[in-house]
User: Which sequence fits this backbone?
């Protein structure tokens, strides 16, 4: 489970931004949106609001970069290739400084705090701490600390000298140790792999995943996919996946961008997936057959997106993972977006306490999605171009029964396109 995530000096975020999924004890509403884990109480998710270009997508990118770097940094890079990290470039003090990332995770009775700082050339620092809540007096203990090339392993990694010698300047020690099957490092990398990212405007990336679930051997999952799709398309009889024959020259042009044979093989499989939505065909009110509609050619943009992200969402719910989603509501009807959010709040559809953190412009969710006040966050950009993340709970006088949608639109919480709210927008258009 994710307790919190923080980062600094990445994209539009100059200063430290921290998202916490620990509930505020004074907020008593909607206890079903929380769950107990060890000695902690955690939230089932959070919503991030803010204007276009405010920094919401950069927040999601920070999560994506950090988790991907943990997963991939041990793999050797091409000589001279830079680490693809993006510092805040509008300040001379940060443009050449390292970016910093940190996760706090809970696994059973153990709370891990893992982080690193990195620039284009190398890992500048790395750290791992653990707190064991099974002990009467739980204290945080350092497992390893790194400053540049100096790595001080204090506990938990028996083959530390050999692993240190294998760690390149541009690789994380944790990633290298996991690659060489160290149990503790492997466990931590696995925990971090449970933090996943979906980019809502690029939903085509997930079609293959959802297609495999719809046609997979796990019939329960396939049926769940079909049932969920019927909520969007009531006449849907079946989902059929076929292999599509493609122009060989097109395939080779795509594959030429991939150097690895394994990658090429996977891309071939992806390119050949065809999703068909079968509907009954009628004659004089009687079903006489079915007609198959191509998801990409015949379905609406909303139906396409819903199908594509449904597989990852179902997997997240069934495995109790943490999912970050950018532009959740893009292309979707507000009721569909609300339904997805509520899936994560319900113990019936979310028995393993999966967590959903999403960016959105859909203000209806503030009223109708059943979110707690401590699940609502804002992202705003300053005149200097620096983004700031802050919670609704920072504001005094916000009650459970407050009209949060109206308050947000009016500008009470900031993080809107026009400071001053609708009145400022009206002034902007005067004389047009």
Assistant:
């Amino acid at each position: 489970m994710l307790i919190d995530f923080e980062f600094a000096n990445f994209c539009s975020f100059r200063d430290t931004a921290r998202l916490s999924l620990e509930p505020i004890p004074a907020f008593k509403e909607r206890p079903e949106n929380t769950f107990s884990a060890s000695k902690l109480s955690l939230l089932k998710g959070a919503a991030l609001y803010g204007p276009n270009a405010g920094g919401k997508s950069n927040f999601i990118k920070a999560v994506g970069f950090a988790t991907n770097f943990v997963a991939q940094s041990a793999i050797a890079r091409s000589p001279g290739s830079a680490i693809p990290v993006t510092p805040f470039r509008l300040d001379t003090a940060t443009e050449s400084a390292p970016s910093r990332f940190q996760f706090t995770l809970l696994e059973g009775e153990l709370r891990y705090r893992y982080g690193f700082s990195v620039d284009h050339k190398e890992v500048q620092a790395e750290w791992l701490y653990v707190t064991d809540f099974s002990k009467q007096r739980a204290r945080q203990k350092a497992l390893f600390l790194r400053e540049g090339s100096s790595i001080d392993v204090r506990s938990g990694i028996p083959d530390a000298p050999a692993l240190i010698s294998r760690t390149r300047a541009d690789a994380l020690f944790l990633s290298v140790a996991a690659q060489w099957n160290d149990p503790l490092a492997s466990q931590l990398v696995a925990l971090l792999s449970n933090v996943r990212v979906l980019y809502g405007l690029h939903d085509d990336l997930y079609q293959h995943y959802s297609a495999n679930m719809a046609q997979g051997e796990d019939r329960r999952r396939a049926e769940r996919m079909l049932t969920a799709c019927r909520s969007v398309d009531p006449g849907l009889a079946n989902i059929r996946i076929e292999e599509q024959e493609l122009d060989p020259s097109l395939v080779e042009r795509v594959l030429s961008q991939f150097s690895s044979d394994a990658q090429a093989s996977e891309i071939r499989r992806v390119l050949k997936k065809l999703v068909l939505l079968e509907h009954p065909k009628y004659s004089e009110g009687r079903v006489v057959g079915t007609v198959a509609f191509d998801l990409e050619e015949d379905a609406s943009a909303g139906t396409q997106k819903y199908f594509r992200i449904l597989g990852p969402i179902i997997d997240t719910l069934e495995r109790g993972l943490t999912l970050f989603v950018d532009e959740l509501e893009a292309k979707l009807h507000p009721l569909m977006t609300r339904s997805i959010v509520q899936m994560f709040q319900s113990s019936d559809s979310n028995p393993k306490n999966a967590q959903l953190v999403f960016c959105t412009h859909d203000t209806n969710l503030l009223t109708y999605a059943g979110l707690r006040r401590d699940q609502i966050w804002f992202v705003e950009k300053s005149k200097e171009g620096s983004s700031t993340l802050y919670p609704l709970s920072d504001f005094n006088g916000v009650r459970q029964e407050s009209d949060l949608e109206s308050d947000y639109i009016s500008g009470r919480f900031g993080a809107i396109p026009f400071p001053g709210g609708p009145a400022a927008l009206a002034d902007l258009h005067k004389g047009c």
